[in-house]
């Protein structure tokens, strides 16, 4: 439709222009008859076709109603904090057992190289071990006080603890334990030598539940101290102390890493244990990490 309208517009325009041109020529001719010019003017007026305007258009008023829009400005907000949990194997600062030395055990192959089998007394302990502490621990089994000897560890890393158990024929001050304490001190280890109901003139002293708990309480006290590696608790016992070492390992395996149980020396070279060889074998048997599960009351005998 738009093309047809446009074609009519062009045709009408040409016709009108042609008529106007003829009229102008006639009017400009001086010889032309005035009546002819008037006649041409009338013809143009009668035959002129008014130029159509642009094609009819329909104006459509469209009202665009947009849904409400909320403009969100980009704001640099801090990201939500994220927590990353890494579960790592517990690590303890310590040195290898292979680095221990044995200078303090030179020339000592049997107890009798150092002392008599059952000799006891605190004086020689005090002379032999610098920094030795004498404490009383309150039994978690019956509330009685049991004496112990305690030597704190030294060094810039967590150290093992050596638990020294006396024989049933002596008390906790038995001199046979001194070479072990000297060796531990040489290497910076902690030492605890507990009394467990005294010597064998008391029925409770020979492997009773109370005696076993006395040793367990001593271990709990030791591993609760600063600088002690609770995963490396080593127990050595001579004669009845060897029996007690086995009882503690059997009833409290979570508290000890290894035990060394041995009897008194004999004349047989093949059966005579050497303290140096026994000490060097510590750690050969692995156990579960020690853990302090009971609160043990302690009193210093030296300050009392």
Topology:
Layout: H1 2-28, H2 34-47, H3 122-128, E1 133-138, E2 145-151, E3 159-165, H4 178-186, E4 190-194, H5 209-223, E5 228-238, H6 240-251, E6 258-262, H7 275-280, E7 297-300
Parallel strand pairs: 3-4, 3-5, 5-6
Antiparallel strand pairs: 1-2, 1-7, 2-4
Helix pairs in contact: 1-2, 5-6
Please describe the structure with a list of short key phrases separated by commas or semicolons.
304 residues; alpha/beta; Rossmann fold; 7 helices; elongated
Could you walk me through the main structural features you see in this protein, from its secondary elements to its overall organization?
The chain has 304 residues and is an alpha/beta fold. The chain has two domains: 46 residues, no CATH class; 204 residues, Rossmann fold. The chain contains seven helices and seven strands. The protein has a seven-stranded mixed β-sheet with strand order 6-5-3-4-2-1-7, sandwiched between helices. Helix 6 links the parallel strand 5 and strand 6. Helix 1 runs antiparallel to helix 2 and helix 5 packs across helix 6. The radius of gyration is 56 Å and the shape is elongated. The N and C termini lie far apart (123 Å).
Shape: elongated
The overall average pLDDT, rounded, is 74
Task: Count every helix, treating DSSP H or I runs of 4 or more residues as helices.
Answer: 7
| SSE run | HHHEEEHEHEHEHE
Counted beta strands: 7
> Which percent bin holds the helix content?
25-40%
